[in-house]
Each structure stands twice: as structure tokens, then as C-alpha cells.
Design a protein that fits this description.
Elements: H1 3-6, H2 17-25, H3 32-49, E1 54-56, E2 60-66, H4 68-77, H5 99-111, E3 116-120, E4 134-145, E5 170-175, E6 178-183, H6 192-197, E7 204-217, E8 222-233, H7 236-252, H8 268-273, E9 297-302, E10 309-312, H9 314-320, E11 329-335, E12 338-343
Parallel strand pairs: 3-4, 6-8
Antiparallel strand pairs: 1-3, 2-8, 4-5, 4-7, 5-6, 7-8, 9-10, 9-11, 11-12
């Protein structure tokens, strides 16, 4: 074998110094086949000890950090498009001004549909088998370090990471003996308010989100994670309300509901003059995840007390939506598995 072949990971068995000498000094007792079996058995043992990923559903109420290229990559792999028509690659998120609401809304909508499997951050240990694994965290406390103050006027297009945690902006937490580190690129911080969360007076903030494990350092007992998205967690009251509303909706909603308060808003004549259908047709409510298959109406509109839009079922719109009208929300009716615009038309 060449030197490169001998040093290939598939040909290596990592041993402590005493056992390394025992095996090298007695190749008869420890033939190649026996060493391969030792390694194979160890890999199976490691796999049995590592936790299994679980489906991740976005627990975020407000996005504070969006790694645009990495999150778009995940969306594209699953066939979803993020509307970035108001964003240019040379821009930082916090320099977008009002257009940032549009970008954040687009990502909120996509996150509601993505099928991502992730390991809970509490289950991470220092082992290279975790490299390439998605890791999720919900209401987890992180310490923040070196994150600069970002403003709308003075924005670095890119931040030159040095590789040193003494200088690079990051957040981190301790899980057992492991230090979980997430590098923070200032260009992906969404707002000035979000910046304060990465620069709190106490040096600590609570975040929810998901990222990808990219490196493991055995010497420093450090696990490096590239964050895809970080945000503020939903409150317990919000989760409870969503759960209750979803159960109520699923038990009461149907296409045959004839007493909807939205009926009076429908302009059927104008809808037929120039039919406009929502594309692609949503299958679930972005807020409660209730299926829209049997619903009469779907609303694409702004969410009350939030900076984003959502495709909502009627119940969520009545409780959390703003209103029907151009610039506020559009009302659609189900027409042969498509959604036809019937109110909230653009100005003539």
C-alpha cells in the first residue's frame, strides 16, 4: 500500500499507545481481518449510542438570524422556492429596510413546509459521527461573544472570520463536556432589535433554531455548528393556543360551511372576469398547520402584531389576520383544488 492508502480513514484503527504497541509487536495474534472486525464492531457500537434525528417543526415567532444561502439550499433540495426578489446578494439583511419584512415572510412560509430531521442539541456529544447532522434547539440559553454592532448605514458585505474564537463573533453553550459553537456572520442578522439579542448586557440570550454540525475538535472538546436560522421562541401561550385552535378547526371546518363571515366579501363577478389563482396552491395553513383540503376559504395576508404574511385558514385569519384589502390580505375560494382570488383585488 502507498503511504496515502495506509493513512486513508478506512484503513485506520485509532488506539491508545499501549495497545498500539501490543498489536504492532504481535501481528500473528492480531491479523488484518481481526483488526477490521474490531473497527466494524466499534462503528456499530457508536451508531447504537448516537441519538436518532427527529422531525423539526419551526418553533420561531420572530427570525433574528437567517443564513440565506444555506437555508435556500435546503429549500431547493425539497422543491421550495424562496421569494428573494427584494434582496440582492451584495446586501446585508439589516440594510433592506421595509423590504426585510417581505424576505422574512418568505422564509417563515418556507420553514412551515420544510421537512427537516434534526438531533436535539441536548443530545450532542464530542464525536465526529455527528458531522453533517442537523441540530435543533428550542428555548436554549447561549452566551454571546464578539458580535459587532450592525447598523443600516455601515454594513460589512462580508465578515472575514479568522478561525479564532477569541476574535470571531459567535454564540456558544455547554452540553456536558462539549462546547457547542455557532459562528455568527453579521450580514445575516435581521434587524437592529435582533442585534441587541446578540449583544445583551448580560452576555446571554435564549434562542431557538436549527443548524448543521460541520466540525468536531477532540482536543478542545468543541462542536462547530453552522446556523441555518435563529430566532425568538414562541411563547408557551402561543403554542397552547395553536394546539387548541388546530383541534377545534379540524373538528368543525368543512367545505360545506355556509355561514362564513367571509361570504359577504366575495366579488364573484370580478373574480370571473380575469380569474387569478394562487400558485403554487398551499396545502396547509402556515399558522396552525391545519390541512386546507376541505376548507372553503384561504387567506394570503398579514398577521396581526407580526412582521410577515401567511397563507391562513379562515379560523386563523379571524383570530390573527389583519383585514381583506389590497396591501393587507387577499381572499381565495377553493375551485377544483385551486384557490381563486375573490376579494382583495389590486386597484383598477
Amino acid at each position: 500500500m502507498t503511504r496515502a492508502e495506509r493513512n486513508c480513514p478506512d484503513n485506520l484503527l485509532l488506539l491508545c499507545r499501549p495497545h498500539h504497541k501490543i498489536i504492532d509487536d504481535d501481528p500473528v495474534t492480531h491479523p488484518i481481518q481481526a483488526l477490521h472486525k474490531i473497527k466494524a464492531d466499534h462503528i456499530l457500537w457508536v451508531a447504537s449510542k448516537l441519538v436518532q434525528p427527529h422531525p423539526w417543526r419551526s418553533p420561531l415567532s420572530q427570525l433574528t438570524y437567517i443564513n440565506v444561502p444555506r437555508l435556500c439550499e435546503q429549500a431547493e433540495l425539497q422543491g421550495y422556492d424562496v421569494d428573494l426578489s427584494r434582496y440582492k446578494q451584495s446586501q446585508t439583511l439589516h440594510s433592506l429596510g421595509w423590504d426585510l419584512n417581505h424576505v422574512m415572510s418568505s422564509f417563515q412560509n418556507v420553514l412551515a413546509y420544510l421537512q427537516l430531521n434534526a438531533v436535539n442539541i441536548e443530545d450532542i456529544v464530542v464525536h465526529e459521527s455527528f458531522i453533517g447532522t442537523a441540530v435543533s434547539f428550542n428555548r436554549h440559553r447561549f452566551r454571546t461573544k464578539n458580535v459587532p454592532c450592525v447598523t443600516r448605514d455601515a454594513d460589512p458585505v462580508s465578515f472575514p472570520f479568522s478561525g479564532s474564537l477569541k476574535d470571531d463573533p459567535h454564540i456558544y453553550t455547554k452540553i456536558g463536556d462539549a462546547k457547542i459553537v455557532m459562528s455568527i456572520d453579521p450580514k445575516w442578522i435581521t434587524t437592529s432589535t435582533a442585534t441587541t439579542l446578540f449583544r445583551p448586557p448580560s452576555g446571554q440570550s435564549i434562542f431557538s433554531g436549527i443548524g448543521l454540525i460541520t466540525a468536531v475538535d477532540y482536543d478542545a472538546l468543541t462542536v462547530s455548528v453552522t446556523p441555518w436560522v435563529i430566532g425568538l421562541p414562541k411563547s408557551i401561550l402561543e403554542f397552547s393556543a395553536e394546539s387548541f385552535e388546530q383541534k377545534r378547526v379540524e373538528s368543525t371546518r368543512s367545505l360545506d360551511n355556509e355561514d362564513s363571515p367571509l361570504d359577504n366579501l366575495v366579488d364573484a363577478k370580478r373574480a370571473q372576469v380575469a380569474p387569478c389563482y394562487f400558485s403554487p396552491p398551499p396545502s396547509h395553513c402556515d399558522l396552525c398547520r391545519h390541512t386546507l383540503k376541505n376548507d372553503k376559504y384561504m387567506i394570503d395576508g398579514g398577521v396581526r402584531d407580526a412582521g410577515f404574511w401567511a397563507c391562513m385558514c379562515e379560523s386563523c385569519f379571524l383570530s390573527r389576520g389583519r383585514k381583506i384589502g389590497w396591501g393587507h390580505g387577499q381572499l381565495y375560494i377553493q375551485d377544483k383544488n385551486r384557490w381563486l382570488l375573490v376579494a382583495g383585488f389590486p386597484p383598477p
